[in-house]
Amino acid sequence: MPSDSRPQQSPSTPEPATGSGDSAASPAGGQGDAPAHPRITSCRTRTGVLKPTRQDVWDRQWGILGRDASDAPLDASEWFGREAPLVVEIGCGTGTATADMALAEPGINLVAIDVYKPGLAKLLQLIEDNGISNIRVLRGDAVSILEDMLGPGSVDGFRVFFPDPWPKKRHHKRRLLTTAMFHLMATRLRPGGGVHVATDHSEYAEFIEESGNAEPLLGPVTWPWPMSSVRLETKFEGRAARIGNSISDFAWGKLPR
Ligand SMILES: C[S@@+](CC[C@H](N)C(=O)[O-])C[C@H]1O[C@@H](n2cnc3c(N)ncnc32)[C@H](O)[C@@H]1O
């Protein structure tokens, strides 16, 4: 991602793109009368088996840095051992950009969410190798985690980079970024907090922009933005660039009460 990749409220129309729709899991959810509580109902089959070195790092670090989704509200300050702005990345994948962004923003407590165990194991490896102290990892459905573990007004920023676009019309109900999800994120943000989304799929970009703009608790970004607006290149973004897809970035701010 270019270093000036400041999120835009209304990007120019993106180029046609094939998208990044082959990842581990996607929740059901949708617009209008669709359920407000999307769940992971359809997963592309991927093995959750770790290779031995990754199993070793998992065994060393998961009990310290990782938790499974649960009904227990998250006390982030207690888990990180400090008070700091809380940024939540949904769908971190293998976490290469997560690690880079945590290193670039040492003053932020960064929670990375995904369902894909081998990806999370890779992130644990990056954390260990680089001595990163400001990442914690939650494994499970992001929707459930936001509903059950993150309190209203407790989050400074959300990042959702290259969510599965589910390009076929019959699969649109599986998309993560519905109006219901934008509302859920907005309720978890403190006033002045922000949502930063990126996608390389042109039709999903329009869907995302409409869904975010429809959320009454969200509006244009106000400054200071609670997290870095520079998006370091993610694994999926790298692939999008190689096949010539253009990237759309969006940002919204939580309106004052
Ligand atoms: C296309 S990948 C993008 C990964 C990463 N952000 C990147 O840009 O390289 C989407 C990721 O979202 C995760 N994901 C999809 N639905 C999810 C959900 N409901 N809860 C948590 N993670 C989810 C997938 O497992 C996958 O790792």
From TrEMBL:
Entry function: Catalyzes the formation of N(7)-methylguanine at position 46 (m7G46) in tRNA.
GO cellular component: tRNA methyltransferase complex
Binding residues annotated for S-adenosyl-L-methionine, in chain numbering: 89, 114, 141, 164
Residues that bind substrate: 168, 200, 234-237
Keyword Metal-binding belongs to the record: no
Native source organism of the sequence: Lolliginicoccus lacisalsi
Bias-annotated ranges (Polar residues): 1-12
Entry EC number(s): 2.1.1.33
Protein name, entry field: tRNA (guanine-N(7)-)-methyltransferase
Record keywords, A-Z: Methyltransferase, S-adenosyl-L-methionine, Transferase, tRNA processing
Lineage: Bacteria, Bacillati, Actinomycetota, Actinomycetes, Mycobacteriales
